[in-house]
Amino acid sequence: MTLRQVLRGGGLATWGELFAARPIGARLALSVAIFLAALALRFAIMPVEAGLAYLTFYPGCVLVFLLCGTGPGTVYVALSALVGVYIFTPPYWEMHLSYRALMPVAFFAFSSSLIGAVVSQTKRTREAIRRLHEETPAMLHSCDEQGRIVSVSDLWLAKLGYERKEVLGHPWTDFLAPVAGACPPALVSGQVYQLAQRSGARIDIQVASVAERNHRGEPSGSIVVLQDVTERQAQTQAVDDLSFMLKLVLNNVPARISYWDTNYQNRFANKAFAEWFGCEEDEVVGRQLREIVGEAWTVRIMPSVQRGLSGQVTQMETTAQDHTGKLRELEIHFVPDLRGEHVNGLFVFVLDVSAQRSAERELAEREKVFRTLIEGVRDYAIYMLDARGHVQTWSSNASQNTGYQADNVLGRHFRMFFTPEDVAAGLAEVELAVAEQQGVYESEGWRMRANGQRFWAGVMLTALRDEHGQLTGFAKVTRDLTERTRQLDLLARVTEVAPFAMLMVNAEGLITMVNAQMEALFGYAREELVNQPVEVLVPLGLRQAHPGMRTGFLRGPQQARRMASGQKIRAVRRDGSEFSVDIGLSQMETATGPCVLAAVVDITERERQQAAIEQALSDKEILLKEVYHRVKNNLQVVQSLMRLQSGGLPEGAAKEACDENIQRVRAMAMVHEKLYQSGNLSEVSLREYTADLLAQITEAGRTQEREVDVQVDVDPITTGLDGAVPYGLLLTELLANALKHAFTGRSRGCISVCLKATDQGALLSVADDGGGLAPDFSLSAQTSSLGLQLAAGLARQLGGELQAHSDNGARFSAVLPRL
Questions:
Q1: Alpha-carbon distance 305 to 300, whole Å?
Q2: What does the alpha-carbon distance between residue 331 and residue 345 come to, in Å, rounded to a whole number?
Q3: Contact (CB, 8 A) for 598 and 584
Q4: What is the pLDDT of residues 316-332, one digit of tens each?
Q5: Is the alpha carbon torsion for 11, 17, 18, 20 positive or negative?
Q6: Residue 62: CB atoms within 10 Å
């Protein structure tokens, strides 16, 4: 220990540690010096005769024993005794060896020896404590009341890498690693701090401090025990990290996980389990099974729980509603927590298998549909091969197509279906190799049935691979094309003998097939047309645009239609002459790609006949117009004559009858006028006809004393001459009847005319707002009214029956099916 450390540490014990390391001569000299100081002090404070000769020597004795040790202390006691006898014992300044003189000396020597023994024992005890502090297998140091280190253990120094002299006298907080740039303001026992090693590294320590107190109970220092918890902290952190990751994993696994003790009390629940019951995890832990899952669920799962707590791994499947009310399919696993032979608890894993079970059902349904589909395909034999070509599956349609049963096929190589010459040529192995290399193999060829019969087949072999691209087998589809080949031969014969020209054109526009009628129609030999562009049959002016139209047709839907419908099509023969044709097109898929089958008909004679018919129809139309015109003119002459006759008649029944006939003739004349004016000589628009007819009748019936408003609502209905004439006469009679009888004594009136199309026929209604019909009115009883009798007859002529109604006026209606 250095003097600087002693000065900083303070205390006689620290000074004793300093002088204990000095040579014996130095310690003897110090003891003599202390003796002289005590002697001088004795002379200074009291005279020689004052008594208490050894008063000042007792403190010096304690000091010498404490600082210099037992030997120098004994010398000090001896010198003090001799001086006491010689100087301070009467007679003074003389050496007396009497009993009276020796008694104080003996007491001083005895008491000084006791003091020396006590001080020496104290020093030894303190030295033992110091050595215990330094050599203890723990990180320990002691501090004075200012917190300066006065002793430190070897392990403390070894852990931090310091020398003892670099530590003693320093505040022990100097060795704490700063937290956020500063040392902690106060140290708490049990708290973890960091110490800075001399190398700059840090270690975690846990502090345990015990305060030391003097005889007055005042703090005099402390003993601080430090425990290196670096490894424990690392392990704790690792455990915390592992716990966090484990909890994170458990909260994110697609399962509801819980742990229950043997008393059915929950000890752990992951997030998914808690959410299933609509609560948080901490709301589940500690609660009883029955409280969480309810009485019904407890009864349902208790047998499995009890088997699990007895040490058996059990499983069950059930359905349940979650907290949202959605029905889920669950798979529950009960796994006992076995430690040795003792069951400590039960792990419960609840898996939501709704999607899995749904997928399984869907897969089973799809497999069923697929199996049904395969079994329902009559013309195809569909089966599976392994990677070497051996048959793995066999279907009923495969048996029907080949005649082989499953027992005779499964496990055998599929070369058994090839002809002997193809087997000898290794065609089966070639098909497997091509399919494996290219993914699929397609061809047509002869195959053998079980009875030895050959049939023409179309085959497709598809390679099957797993997710790693490894070949697992092949799917084989074989179609019996015998009937199709027969149909193609028949089609070729039918095409050849067809009564019109036929040709087939491929996607490149080349002619691939023509029949005999094609040769005769165009003047080409068959070999001159095959493999030639179809444009050789198209007039020069259209050849440039024809390829684009042909390509557009191939891109369109596959359906039969006429070429250039509504337009004239011209074709050119071998000699260059052009003629009119009608062409029907049919797009089809063939083994070589899309093709167009065209049927060509020479319509030159048809066009000539059509022109003659159109000329005849034109002549007939002109004739009909002339007839309608002449009839209309004749009726107008009749109308004029009758008007002249009416003008010469006096007012009365004769004049009224003549005026009514004029209206009837006008209605018939107007029908012929409408037919003459329309472009269609067979139909009359009843909407226009009704409007014009009503305009003329109301104009004739209007007088200065009375004004009548006519409202018209007519659907767009057309009819022929045989319906228009009786309709016009019927409407004329009903309107004339209303104008004549409805508004007697009134200056204004309203007539409504309505013609509507119904499912039963046209509904005609003529109504007025006049006085209405008499209570006893009946159509059958009105024999004196020629107009109504004629109207009833006209209605029957049009397939209807005239009805009379009286409601806020008179209304006559009839459904006319023949109109």
A1: 10
A2: 20
A3: yes
A4: 998 888 767 788 888 99
A5: positive
A6: 17
